[in-house]
Design a protein that fits this description.
Elements: E1 9-15, E2 29-38, E3 41-46, E4 52-56, H1 62-80, H2 86-101, H3 117-126, H4 131-142
Antiparallel strand pairs: 1-2, 2-3, 3-4
Helix pairs in contact: 1-2
């Protein structure tokens, strides 16, 4: 089995209590598990008990190793589509699979295009004067993009 990249780290987080005035999306996250994969050895540290658990994939029975391979591929490809839909999800999954086929574990699907306030205002400014630009101005003011 090929050695995994040492930089492959996974963590599970939990949301800590925050005041009601703070949205859950802004809540501070606390690391509960730290995982490091070196070769075929997985080391897990649990934060509350500070327990360190060590597991060697290579020592598992062959039938379990054979089942974990497809499961891991399913997880890796599923992660590539996280937060994406439609063709964007399909393209991300294919990009990650193609990377795996070339031996590249850390290939990442491209991030979604970012739309900035500056780019929206630039497009608005480039619009010709008229009724459409007036409607766009109203919309952008309602959205808080234009003052």
């Amino acid at each position: 089995m090929a050695k995994a990249n040492k930089s492959v780290v996974d963590e599970v987080t939990e949301v800590t209590e925050t005041p009601d005035s703070v949205p859950a999306s802004k809540a501070k996250k606390k690391k509960r598990l730290g995982k490091v994969l070196e070769g075929t050895v997985l080391t897990i540290k649990e934060a509350d008990t500070e327990s360190v658990l060590v597991f060697d994939f290579g020592k598992l029975p062959e039938n379990i190793q054979a089942l974990l391979g497809p499961y891991g591929m399913s997880q890796k490809l599923g992660d590539a589509a996280a937060g994406k839909r439609g063709q964007e999800a399909v393209d991300s999954i294919n990009k990650v699979y193609e990377g795996l086929m070339t031996g590249n574990w850390s290939v990442r699907a491209p991030a979604a295009e970012k739309i900035s306030k500056k780019s929206i205002l630039g497009k608005f400014e480039a619009m010709p004067e008229g009724k459409e630009k007036e409607m766009a101005a109203t919309l952008l003011k309602n959205l808080g993009i234009l003052s």
